[in-house]
């Protein structure tokens, strides 16, 4: 039987983080699912603010178009800001799931309240906006930042990983949350270890999104092309954007 392919897009240009994300995705993918982990060739090395997200969204759209042309069955946007999510759904035929959206949904299925642990304090407002957008503001007890940049998760020192661990312990102790959501795709390899240590669900959005896409594909549910998520109105895009025509 030919395997179905899920494209997992790391919206930044870090190959190391793309590999971390790909390993986590493959660990939970079903036997009939192949994971295609990709990242843009141009853009930002990490996504830590609104400016970064705006640039990264173009790379996401490039990858979604490439994946659609290759016949992948669905797409995961593996950045906790879910950059370009709705635009990607316009371009895609199959389902597109962002890791923040997936993790928040999963958390509400296993707990009434959850906490989020992310990287820099300046990104907390982005997570708050997503909580409001997705309707989970009343389910989130608190947001925490380890106050280290995204790429510190890949520097090999273990400092960022230990800070994530300590913040998760703090969140369980102080917030009264039944689950913790990890707020960065680069934390994908920490969830299972932290779940065992803390004794509560610690949810990584990459793996959650992969399983959601698999479920949508199994149910025969593609992105609706009726209304605002219909394919983009055909226009003659110019300059560097001609490639998206």
Automatic annotation (TrEMBL):
Q: What Pfam families is this protein classified in?
A: Asp_Glu_race (PF01177)
Q: Which InterPro entries match?
A: Asp/Glu/hydantoin_racemase, Hydantoin_racemase-like, Iso_Racemase_Enz_sf
* Any GO MF annotation of the entry: amino-acid racemase activity
Q: Which domain of life is it from?
A: Bacteria
Tell me which family the UniProt entry assigns to this protein: Belongs to the HyuE racemase family.
Q: Could you tell me what this protein is called?
A: Asp/Glu racemase
Its taxonomic path starts at: Bacteria, Pseudomonadati, Pseudomonadota, Gammaproteobacteria, Enterobacterales
